[in-house]
TrEMBL record:
Binding site for substrate: T12, A13, I14, G15, K16, T17
Taxonomic path: Bacteria, Pseudomonadati, Bacteroidota, Flavobacteriia, Flavobacteriales
This protein's name: tRNA dimethylallyltransferase
EC id: 2.5.1.75
MF terms in GO: tRNA dimethylallyltransferase activity
Family membership: Belongs to the IPP transferase family.
Amino acid sequence: MSNYLISIVGPTAIGKTALSIKLAQYFNTDIISADSRQFFKEMQIGTAAPSTEELSAAKHHFIHHKSIQDNYSVGAFERDALKKLKMLFETKQVVIMVGGSGLYVDAVTKGLDEFPAIDKTIRQGLNNDLETKGLKYLQNQLKALDTKAFNTIAIENPHRVIRALEICLGSGKPYSSFLNQGKSKRNFKTITVGLTAERAIIYNRINQRVDIMMENGLLHEVKTLLPYQSLNALNTVGYKELFNYLNGEWPLDFAISEVKKNTRRFAKRQLTWFKKNETTLWFDYETDVNNIIKQLNKELLPVKN
């Protein structure tokens, strides 16, 4: 097996994009984005998508290639990403993948889990509960049925909560019991590089990033998307909070503080997800890139020779 995918993971605002570009330049290769929010061309500032300068520093794939009005699933991304990797591996032995969306990363590196078919009326009922009783009600229901799933999925995402609940209710088994059962084989080897830092540092970097986003025009970006606020792609941190401000429900200062708080919660869940992979090579976010490259070259010894 001579093809290697170097997957860079870690919490938001930790420096994954910068590292991915340096590694892509060193290995003279391309970058695949596994950040599900950066797929959408209308969402640039609030998703911390790579800048024009960063995009020109290395060839990127799956950045702003979809519209918020497109129905683009993790399954579709898995198919598209594997097709792109097959093409890239024809001329390159190493490809870089970067992103903080754990499910999308795992879809490429391991394959998606298989779930039983569920009666559509169950999801319809859960959608009605979301509208009438709220997300908190559904979260508590999931916590009672599957604590493991409650602690690992993106609990602030109604789509993910409803998906887990419909599996629990429709199958009579915990959603988490279907995870990591039969994984698809890949014709490449994955080396996962994780960036991390002390929690206080991560949280401070998140707070600073949100302030920079606001300075760069996040509020204006969200305002242009207000007519589409009901779309699933926009039901995400950084957008839904500012929608509440624009709809007159929250003061701006409070909305910004909620963006920071919810992003910090998201980062905590990212780390929980990524820490499950015991083979990840973890580095402090300030580690010199040459030290990371040195470790990677040890892992890539068969390729280098």
